[in-house]
Specification:
503 residues; mainly alpha; 3 domains; two-stranded parallel ribbon; 2 strands; globular
C-alpha cells in the first residue's frame, strides 16, 4: 500500500502546485483551511464514541468549525462589499485595503463545511490525512466544483483498482474532457462575442432596444451554460483519467419544465448542498407552508449572495426564490383541485419548458449585469421600453415574407444599422446552440455506456431515439472526438477564463 500513499501524495502535491500557480501567497490559506478542518473533523469523529456524554461538546466544536469557515469566507469575499454599503448608507468615507478574492474559496469552504457536518453526524468513515488533503485539493474540481462529499470521494481512494492504469479510464476520461473543452473554447467563447458587447454597452448607459436586449440576454444564457457545464465535464474527464469518479453537475437544465426541476438539473452539487445543509436545517417543509416558503426564500437569497458580493446576485437569488415559491403554490393548487394526476400533453410540456426557460433568461440578466442600472437597462429593452429596432439588412428578408418589413415599419419598428449585431448569422448561431441544448443528448447520455457518474440527480441516461449517439470504443468515435479536439485546440488563441472562477 506504500505506492498508494506515494500516488496520493503526488496528486496532492500537483494539486497544490496547480493552485499556487495562480498566486503562491494563498497556498498558506488553503493549507491552513485543510489542517484546521481535518483536525476539527477528527475531533468530532473521536467524540462520536461518547455521543451521549459529549453531545453538547460535539455541537460546540461543530459550531466553532463552521463559524471559522464562514468567517474566513466572509472576510475575503464580503468585507469590501460591507464597507462600501455602510459608506453609502451613512455617507461615510471609511477606506479599507483591497482584498483579493482567493481562487476557489467558496467551493473548498462549502466542501469542508459539509465534511464537518457529516463528521458531526457520524457519517465519515475515513480519517487518513493524505486522503483528506486530496479530497479538498484534487485539482480538477478544486477551482469551480463540482462540490464533492467525502462519501463520494474518500472510499475511491481506498480501492486498489483506483491506482491501476486502465486504457478504458484514459479513453473515457479524455473523451469527456474534450467534449467539455469544445463546449468552452468553441461554443461558450464563440457566443460570448455576442453577449459581452451588449452587457458592456448597457453598463455605459446605452439604450438597449428590444432585439439587441433579447439577443444579448439569450447569448449570455447559452454562454454561461456551455462555459460552466464545459468546465464540469473537463473536471469529470480529468478525474476519470486518474480513476476517480466525480459527480455530475448538470443534466439538461434548460429542458426543465419548471423551476423546481431546473434546480434539480442546474449546478446539481450546489443545489444539493443548499438543500442538505441550509434548507433542511432551517426546517425545510416540516413546519408548515409559511415556514417552507420562508426557508426557500432564505436559501435562495443566501445562494445568490454566495455567488458574489453584489446586490445583483442577491436580486438573482431572490428572484429564483420567488419563482420557486410560485412553482410550489401552483403545484399545491393543482393538487387541491385534483389536476396533478392528469397526464401532461406534448403541447403542455413544450409550453412549460418555454415559460421556464424565459424566466431563467430574465433572471440571468441580474446574474450577468455589474449593476442594477445595467440590469434595468437590459430589462427595459427586453420589455420594449427602449424601442424596437432591427438591423437594416433584415428589412429585405422580411418584406419577402408577405410584406412583413413594411408592416413593422407602420407600427413603429425601425430598421437601421446596429453596431452590436450585423445580420442574421447571429440569430442562426443562437438557434444552432438552442438545438444542441434542447434536442441533442447531454454528456451523461452521450457517455452512458462507459461512464457511471457519481449521480446526485437520479435519472436514466439512456435515450432510445439517440441511442446511435452513445459513445463507444469504435473507430468512428475515435475520429469524431479527434476532430473535436483539433477544432478546440485551433480555438485556443486567446486567454479565456471560466465564468465561475470569480465565485
Amino acid at each position: 500500500m506504500s505506492h498508494h500513499r506515494v500516488a496520493i501524495a503526488w496528486l496532492v502535491g500537483t494539486s497544490l502546485f496547480f493552485y499556487g500557480w495562480w498566486n503562491p501567497s494563498y497556498l498558506g490559506l488553503i493549507l491552513a483551511s485543510v489542517f484546521f478542518n481535518y483536525g476539527v473533523g477528527l475531533g468530532l469523529g473521536n467524540m462520536n464514541a461518547q455521543a451521549e456524554k459529549k453531545a453538547y461538546s460535539r455541537k460546540f466544536v461543530l459550531t466553532i468549525g463552521v463559524t471559522v469557515n464562514l468567517s474566513l469566507l466572509a472576510y475575503y469575499k464580503y468585507t469590501n462589499f460591507f464597507i462600501d454599503n455602510m459608506n453609502a448608507l451613512f455617507d461615510t468615507n471609511f477606506n479599507f485595503h483591497t482584498i483579493i478574492l482567493p481562487l476557489a474559496i467558496s467551493f473548498f469552504t462549502f466542501q469542508q463545511i459539509a465534511y464537518l457536518v457529516d463528521a458531526y453526524k457520524g457519517e465519515t468513515r475515513e480519517y487518513n490525512f493524505l486522503h483528506y488533503c486530496l479530497f479538498v485539493t484534487f485539482f480538477p474540481q478544486l477551482i469551480a466544483g463540482p462540490i464533492v462529499h467525502h462519501r463520494e470521494m474518500l472510499p475511491q481512494f481506498a480501492r486498489k483498482e483506483t491506482y491501476e492504469f486502465k486504457a478504458s479510464n484514459f479513453s473515457v476520461g479524455i473523451t469527456i474532457f474534450i467534449v467539455g473543452l469544445f463546449k468552452k473554447v468553441v461554443l461558450a467563447d464563440g457566443v460570448a462575442l455576442y453577449s459581452t458587447p451588449v452587457f458592456t454597452a448597457t453598463e455605459e448607459g446605452s439604450a438597449i432596444s428590444f432585439f439587441v436586449a433579447w439577443c444579448g440576454a439569450l447569448a449570455y444564457t447559452l454562454q454561461l451554460y456551455f462555459d460552466f457545464s464545459g468546465y464540469s465535464d473537463m473536471a469529470v474527464g480529468i478525474g476519470r483519467l486518474f480513476g476517480i469518479y466525480l459527480p455530475a453537475n448538470f443534466f439538461s437544465p434548460y429542458k426543465a419544465v419548471n423551476i423546481i426541476q431546473f434546480w434539480q438539473r442546474w449546478h446539481i452539487t450546489l443545489s444539493s448542498f443548499l438543500r442538505s445543509y441550509l434548507y433542511i436545517p432551517l426546517g425545510g417543509n416540516r413546519l408548515g407552508s409559511f415556514r417552507k416558503y420562508m426557508n426557500l426564500m432564505i436559501t435562495m437569497f443566501l445562494g445568490g449572495l454566495w455567488h458574489g458580493a453584489n446586490w445583483t446576485f442577491v436580486a438573482w437569488g431572490t428572484l429564483h426564490g420567488i419563482f420557486l415559491l410560485v412553482n410550489h403554490l401552483w403545484h399545491s393548487c393543482r393538487k387541491h383541485f385534483h389536476y396533478d394526476n392528469n397526464s401532461p400533453t406534448l403541447v403542455g410540456i413544450a409550453l412549460s419548458r418555454f415559460v421556464t426557460f424565459i424566466a431563467v433568461v430574465i433572471a440571468w440578466v441580474f446574474f450577468r449585469a455589474e449593476s442594477y442600472a445595467g440590469a434595468k437597462n437590459i430589462l427595459y429593452g427586453m420589455a420594449g421600453i427602449n424601442g424596437f429596432i432591427l438591423p437594416s439588412t433584415y428589412q429585405t428578408y422580411l418584406d419577402k415574407m408577405f410584406g412583413l418589413g413594411s408592416y413593422l415599419t407602420t407600427i413603429g419598428w425601425k430598421f437601421q444599422n446596429i453596431e452590436l449585431f450585423f445580420g442574421y448569422q447571429e440569430i442562426l448561431y443562437l438557434l444552432f446552440l438552442l438545438v444542441i441544448i434542447w434536442l441533442l443528448p447531454n454528456t451523461q447520455q452521450f457517455m452512458c455506456r462507459h461512464h457511471k457518474y457519481s449521480e446526485i440527480y437520479k435519472v436514466n441516461p439512456h435515450v432510445k431515439f439517440f441511442a446511435w449517439l452513445e459513445w463507444d470504443y469504435t473507430h468512428f468515435w475515435a475520429i469524431a472526438v479527434g476532430i473535436l479536439a483539433l477544432i478546440s485546440v485551433l480555438h485556443l488563441t486567446r486567454i479565456s477564463e471560466f465564468l465561475y472562477f470569480q465565485f
